[in-house]
Predict the 3D structure of the following.
Amino acid sequence: MKPCILVTSHINNSEKIKVAYKLINFLQNRELPVIFAGNFPIPIEIQQKVDYTLNIKENPLPNRWGLFWNQVLTSMGWGENVYMEHKSWDYGYAHLHQICKGVKLCQSLGYDYVYHLNYDIEFTEENFNKFINRGKEGNPLFFKWGDEDNLATNIFSLPCSLYVDSIEPTLHLYQEGTFEDPDLKKGWFCESFFKWAIEKYSMEKFYPITDIPFSANYYHLDGKFSLGSSLVDIYFHPEKEIFLFWKKKGEIENPCELKHEDGSNHLLKPTSIPYYFILENNKEGNYYYKGDLVFTNSLSFKSNNYIVYK
């Protein structure tokens, strides 16, 4: 058996880069080669610390999305039953697609067993060694995801051929978004599909291991967008033609300014709620914070991240 470690990623802001860099530093000086894959440009500092990198041009979306909402507090003075809603594509398809590309690169380099880690996985030294040692016999190792016996996709290990031969032929079913199967519950998601495809191909039943703890750092950080070390959600209020920034993690500087791509500066105004801030500018285009892209104001963005009255 010739194993390797595959790290997959979509590190599209400075906070995610810090988290990924922490994992790569942890993986230094191990016996196993490290392959770092990403469908967002991989910083040179990370490339220099791993054995191989794979830049994947595609970040494909399936024909599936979900609707998420949160209620606006009435103390904002915007009325009763006001909700913040956003539509989000099912990025699980891109996740499995990226892993497949990465595992196939592992195979092309001569590796036949892969330890897969998402960029935000964190282990203690003891539990990392348990994970590596448990896979030395070449058997698949899966972890629990959610309340049911679904299999986590952010961490697992298995023979490369098991992943490629089970996921690659079925991935188009995920992309189509209308796939149904008696063994898949209605409303299935990435981890459900992963379990279904792996077990269908292998004709085996797999049970997650529970005695090797780990954490997924970025997964637990709320907020879709970053303002330096702060994570926020952003919504557009079509009646007021303003953006609402909802601080979910960290602190927002006061005063805090965003720079539009045309060079103009725009203040985030505090509200009566400490974690809500208002951006009154509604120019189309990119908004930056200290050089980092925060969000792109477009019709698509506003229609998928919006505030509505119910």
Remarks:
- Helices lie at 14-26, 44-47, 92-108, 125-134, 160-167, 171-176, 190-202, 299-304.
- The longest strand covers residues 150-159.
- The CA atoms of residues 117 and 155 lie 5 Å apart.
- The chain is about 25% helix and 35% strand.
